[in-house]
Fold Cysteine-rich receptor-like protein kinase 15.
Amino acid sequence: MSSLIFLFILSFLNTSFTACAQNPDFLAGFCPNTNTTTFSKNSTYSINLTTLLSSLSSRNASYSTGFQNATAGESPDMITGLFLCRGDLSPEVCRNCVVFSVNDTLTRCPNVREAVLYYEECMLRYSHRNILSTPKLHPVAWRTNGNNMSYRQVVRFEDTVSNNLNRAAVRAANSPRKVFAFKTNWTEFQNLSGLVQCTPDLTTQDCLNCLQLSINRLPFYRIGVRIRYPSCYSRYELYQFYNETAITTLQLPQLSPPLVPSPQRPGKGGNPSVLVVAIVVLVILVVLLPIACYCFLAKREKKPYDTAPAFHGDDITTADSLQLDYRTIQTATNDFAERNKIGRGGFGEVYKGILSNGTEVAVKRLSKTSGQGETEFKNEVVVVAKLQHRNLVRLQGFCLEGEERILVYEYVRNKSLDYIIFDPAKKSQLDWTLRYKIIDGIARGILYLHQDSRLTVIHRDLKASNILLDEDMNPKIADFGMARIFGMDQTQEKTGRVVGTLGYMPPEYVMNGHFSMKSDVYSFGVLVLEIISGKRNSSFHERDVARDLVTYAWRLWSNGTALDLVDPIIEGNCQKNEVIRCIHIGLLCVQEDPVKRPTLSTIFVMLTSNTVTLPVPQQPGFSVQTRNQLHQWSTSVDRSLITDIYPR
Ligand SMILES: *[C@@H]1O[C@H](CO)[C@@H](O)[C@H](O)[C@H]1NC(C)=O
Ligand SMILES: *[C@@H]1O[C@H](CO)[C@@H](O)[C@H](O)[C@H]1NC(C)=O
Ligand SMILES: *[C@@H]1O[C@H](CO)[C@@H](O)[C@H](O)[C@H]1NC(C)=O
Ligand SMILES: *[C@@H]1O[C@H](CO)[C@@H](O)[C@H](O)[C@H]1NC(C)=O
Ligand SMILES: *[C@@H]1O[C@H](CO)[C@@H](O)[C@H](O)[C@H]1NC(C)=O
Ligand SMILES: *[C@@H]1O[C@H](CO)[C@@H](O)[C@H](O)[C@H]1NC(C)=O
Ligand SMILES: *[C@@H]1O[C@H](CO)[C@@H](O)[C@H](O)[C@H]1NC(C)=O
Ligand SMILES: *[C@@H]1O[C@H](CO)[C@@H](O)[C@H](O)[C@H]1NC(C)=O
Ligand SMILES: *[C@@H]1O[C@H](CO)[C@@H](O)[C@H](O)[C@H]1NC(C)=O
Ligand SMILES: CC(=O)N[C@H]1CO[C@H](CO)[C@@H](O)[C@@H]1O
């Protein structure tokens, strides 16, 4: 098949005239050839298609913007067509690709009513249906760069790539031409470059959906991948694959958020591209001063926190609508009365409050350690407030006055999970069905943070006291986004300030300060084992048996007595196969090697479908002294089992 394509391209190389320096790089073509999708040679449709194609490849088509739509004929012979060139390419390259593709489709898709042809430089698409302004996520084509990221660096790489692509997706979706490119320092010798683009006929939301879907499908362990849908395109490489000059020009008009997404703090200082941008801005300001002034004034009408990194357009939440008066909060909490105090977290103290309209709220008074500016704080709160999911505690407002930084959350009635699950007198309230529901809900909440929200948020401090339970015992994760609110770098691979709680932190985090989404997976695994056993991982008492719960669970599992882990209070009344499966998943989550831990989307599939075969867990990650005492019994994890269960 690929050799056929190769031959095909080769024949074009031989016959095409030399004016075209290089033929476009063909990725894939799709034109379903069935009785209902074809037309006959001399039909109206055929004539109209010819008209359409020649209009798309005509000299006056808008190659400079890289996108053109056109229609020809009347229903039922109406045809709609479009082309999209990669955002950084010059009009000449774009036209070359479109002209080539128009020729190409006549050969590849003769007499077929609809076709999509993907090249690296452009895409050509036409159909008898109306394809404009309609997101289309099928068919997909992709190509990977043959090499895998080295095992040692793959976790950091996956995080860097996914964070940058997701941020770029938001920027692209909000830009007029629906394209955004980024370059960021990967190592001293390599930059990571990426480009995401939608057809500009899509709405911001449709574009974002398409890009996020495509990004979620990318195998980030490859050092370079490109993926194309009819509606969008994403690519990243460890080399400069796009024309930086062209993209910089394109991206200048919307400079307001930083060109380099904020988490890329390393290496920001001496970045020459920032310098170039600065010079260009200076020139523009001087030359086009009146216009610049006008734009500036127009911008000033908006609030400064409009520069929040992510959201524009359909989002109406602003800092104004969330900001609360300090006095309001003082009244609501009886001036932070001791008897209103309901908890203490790593970031400050929590009080119960009642607002003047009767709403019960939980008020978190943050400790005064953040060196963050007011605007940044507001920006981050607004972003975090937009993370809304039934398994996340809802952030309802904030207050910022003087030194005070206060977050106001929905009030959740049943306190936190640790308050019930570890209390011998209360734990019987949670039977197996409820515990399973809690595990499931926590997984949904983290999955949303990791992948389904518009940002990738790593919680970094998942633990039983951060899982709150509402009156129906639905779990709600608290304290998410604290890293954002405190202005800490979410993607930085190492952190001097190790937040998190002993017993829930994975070995690579404790020892090296490395964290990633897989750190949250580890904490989730610990939580699962705690929920099943009703025992705390950190203050595990059976010292003669094992030093902590994870070790203990592993020992029982390898002895074939996993059910001994189950909390005696629910033992007689639980679905044994469900429990075993949850212990199995818990053990997979606490694997020492982050790569071997499943992602949340995999965990979710494992939890919700019991037809899926789980990989065999290996010895979990725990302290060095116990490592050699256990015999290796398990076979190595079969990676194909892991990949199989993605329904993709
Ligand atoms: C398609 O058309 C051919 C002849 O033109 C016929 O033999 C075949 O059964 C048709 N297939 C379908 C699915 O209608
Ligand atoms: C198509 O039309 C041309 C002239 O209009 C005619 O010469 C040719 O035979 C037709 N071909 C078919 C397949 O009908
Ligand atoms: C280009 O110009 C021709 C007439 O000069 C017109 O028929 C055609 O629709 C134009 N094409 C586009 C894409 O504007
Ligand atoms: C489509 O084909 C019909 C029949 O040949 C013709 O009358 C009409 O002008 C065509 N439309 C375009 C836009 O070429
Ligand atoms: C298009 O194809 C025809 C023959 O099929 C060829 O003569 C012509 O040169 C091609 N044009 C381009 C721009 O490749
Ligand atoms: C890259 O990694 C994947 C999954 O881990 C594996 O299936 C593939 O064979 C590896 N490819 C290369 C070239 O090492
Ligand atoms: C990475 O990007 C920076 C800033 O644009 C540039 O100075 C540097 O030369 C690039 N490094 C490589 C290896 O391309
Ligand atoms: C990159 O884009 C700029 C501006 O559009 C153009 O002048 C330059 O020739 C392009 N470089 C390459 C290598 O295509
Ligand atoms: C890029 O990052 C590496 C470490 O990740 C650092 O050693 C290097 O100095 C950085 N380079 C630049 C140009 O910032
Ligand atoms: C959805 C869309 O982009 N439609 C455009 C198609 O092209 C015509 C001009 O040729 C525009 O007017 C439409 O807005």
Q: What stands out?
A: The radius of gyration is 28 Å. DSSP finds 22 helices and 17 strands in the chain. Residues 432-452 form the longest helix (21 residues).
